[in-house]
């Protein structure tokens, strides 16, 4: 009996050590919990001073996890760029910042659908596997021109 107690005790100690190690590793990586990932702040008045949003559009990525960065600027009542082409099969990190109020960024026919809040860069990574034209729209009421707030994503062969 004594022997089994010892085994259980060491099992417990090892489990605790592993658990603490996992906590430590995720803390060092900036946290991979869904709530903490990808949070980046940006002042709404300085969005256009940022080189990514000064020239929004599609850029090849150095990150091995995805092929392209795609930047959009949201403002009442438009998206910039108004149209963008993506090669089919590309994994794309879509990042959006607003220069004014809250907008709801959605690429219809895909899983890309998130709020764009002032002072935050919001992003979602998605693989565009099907060629076609996808309407980008705003799904958060943002003022008189809300329904005009669109763009087109063309997924091309
Ligand atoms: Cu932007 Cu509704």
TrEMBL record:
A Gene Ontology molecular function term of the record: copper ion binding
Intracellular or extracellular location(s): Cell envelope
Keyword Metal-binding: yes
GO cellular component term, pick one: membrane
Major location (coarse): other
Pfam families named in the record: COX2
Cytochrome oxidase subunit II copper A binding domain ranges (all copies): 63-157
Gene3D superfamilies from the UniProt entry: Cupredoxins - blue copper proteins (2.60.40.420)
Reactions that this protein is recorded to catalyse: 4 Fe(II)-[cytochrome c] + O2 + 8 H(+)(in) = 4 Fe(III)-[cytochrome c] + 2 H2O + 4 H(+)(out)
Swiss-Prot/TrEMBL keywords: Copper, Metal-binding
Annotated PANTHER family: CYTOCHROME C OXIDASE SUBUNIT II (PTHR42838), NITROUS-OXIDE REDUCTASE (PTHR42838:SF2)
Function, as annotated: Subunits I and II form the functional core of the enzyme complex. Electrons originating in cytochrome c are transferred via heme a and Cu(A) to the binuclear center formed by heme a3 and Cu(B).
The protein's name in its UniProt record: Cytochrome aa3 subunit 2
Native species: Aliicoccus persicus
């Amino acid at each position: 009996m004594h022997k089994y107690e010892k085994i259980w005790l060491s099992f417990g100690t090892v489990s605790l050590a592993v658990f603490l190690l996992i906590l430590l590793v995720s803390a060092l990586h900036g946290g991979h919990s869904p709530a903490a990932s990808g949070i980046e702040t940006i002042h709404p008045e300085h969005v256009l001073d940022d080189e990514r949003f000064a020239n929004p559009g599609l850029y090849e990525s150095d990150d091995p996890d995805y092929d392209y960065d795609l930047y959009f600027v949201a403002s009442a009542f438009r998206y910039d760029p108004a149209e963008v082409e993506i090669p089919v099969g590309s994994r794309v990190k879509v990042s959006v910042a607003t220069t004014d109020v809250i907008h709801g960024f959605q690429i219809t026919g895909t899983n890309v659908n998130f709020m764009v809040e002032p002072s935050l860069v919001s992003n979602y990574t998605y693989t565009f596997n099907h060629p076609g034209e996808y309407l980008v729209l705003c799904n958060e009421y943002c003022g008189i021109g809300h329904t005009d707030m669109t763009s087109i994503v063309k997924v091309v062969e």
